[in-house]
Specification:
The complex is a heterodimer. Chain A is mainly α. Chain A has seven helices and no strands. Chain B is built from ten helices and no strands. The longest helix of chain B is centred in the first third of the chain and has 32 residues. The chains are: A mainly alpha, B mainly alpha.
Chain lengths: 120, 193
């Protein structure tokens, strides 16, 4: 005959297992019958717990993207554009490039120094 | 339509006169959509217990359905759609980790994040079980979800997860033992390893 531990391990792996040997053990052993009842009670809790309800907003369809959820690349592009509008860096960058340095006379000085170094 | 046919001039070369292709395509599309709609709640739940993240679960299911549509010709029997989609979801979930390295998140943070969903049940004991499931290691949570949620047999779980039958039984047994202990059930009668 099947041992108690063997029966309980099998039942804990699959509480709805309808194997003939398991059934025979359960009918013969009162302790294991009580254990099975307690296990099945917990199993019904487990089944209810696993049936998580998703809110209706989570409408996932195969041919439509979720509302307000653009593809990743598009989202990144929009974010970058929004950030650029909020914090315009281009005018500052432009002022730091060559027209600005020309205005301050930076570029000719640099070239002059460079030529000096070569001739020395 | 008769006028168009008789004049012959509006028909492009290679155009299907009776629109069999287009109509058939639309029909197939509608049927596939209905199939996805019917299976969606279970697929979302499975993806949620796999990822423990509602937003990620929705994304994974969405992408999986698109993949399934593209590979629809490989589904020969519509009755096998559920395990077929589940396999796609598992692969898609694994793929999300290949594409993106997610930061390590504390389980308590995950539970706190998903609290509105987890605490939707009216009974406190159900919430306790949900929190305990969230804390289960992946290798125990996945076969448990396949068995309890999807009604898979041990052999089917073994095939899906590429494990041996005894390995699946051991994982399921350990998963339930951990859950029972975490939920304050008397485990003195449980088999010891």
């Amino acid at each position: 005959m099947m041992e108690h531990a063997q029966y309980r391990a099998a039942m804990m792996a699959d509480p709805h297992d309808d194997d003939a040997e398991l059934r025979a053990h359960r009918e013969a052993c009162a302790e294991c019958r009580a254990f099975t009842e307690q296990l099945l009670k917990f199993e019904s809790r487990l089944e209810r717990a696993m049936r998580v309800d998703f809110p209706p907003a989570a409408d996932v369809l195969p041919f439509a993207r979720k509302q307000g959820n653009a593809p990743l690349a598009a989202r990144r592009l929009l974010e970058a554009f929004g950030s650029a509008c909020r914090n315009p860096v281009w005018p500052r960058l432009w002022s730091r490039t060559w027209p600005g340095s020309l205005r301050r006379g930076g570029a000719p000085t640099l070239r002059f120094r460079s030529l000096n170094w070569r001739t020395c | 339509l008769d006028a168009v046919i008789s004049q012959q001039r509006y028909l492009k070369p290679g155009f299907d006169l009776y629109m069999n292709d287009e109509a058939g395509g639309m029909q197939r599309r509608a049927r596939f959509q209905a199939l996805c709609q019917s299976l969606r709640p279970d697929l979302l739940r499975f993806a949620f217990w796999l990822s423990r993240d509602r937003a990620l679960a929705e994304d994974v299911v969405q992408e999986s359905m698109l993949r399934a549509w593209k590979a629809r010709d490989s589904l020969l029997d519509e009755g096998a759609a559920k395990p077929w989609l589940l396999t796609i979801i598992r692969r898609e979930y694994a793929r999300t980790f290949e594409r993106k390295r997610f930061p390590t998140v504390d389980v308590d943070e995950l539970i706190a994040k998903e609290e509105p969903l987890l605490a939707a049940a009216e009974e406190q004991d159900i919430n306790d079980v949900r929190v305990a499931i969230m804390k289960l290691p992946d290798e125990y949570r996945e076969p448990l979800a396949l068995q309890v949620l999807m009604g898979y047999s041990t052999a089917e779980i073994a095939r899906e997860l590429n494990l041996s039958g005894p390995a699946v039984l051991t994982r399921l047994c350990r998963a339930r033992r951990q859950l029972r202990a975490a939920c304050g059930v008397d485990t003195s009668q449980d088999p010891q390893e």
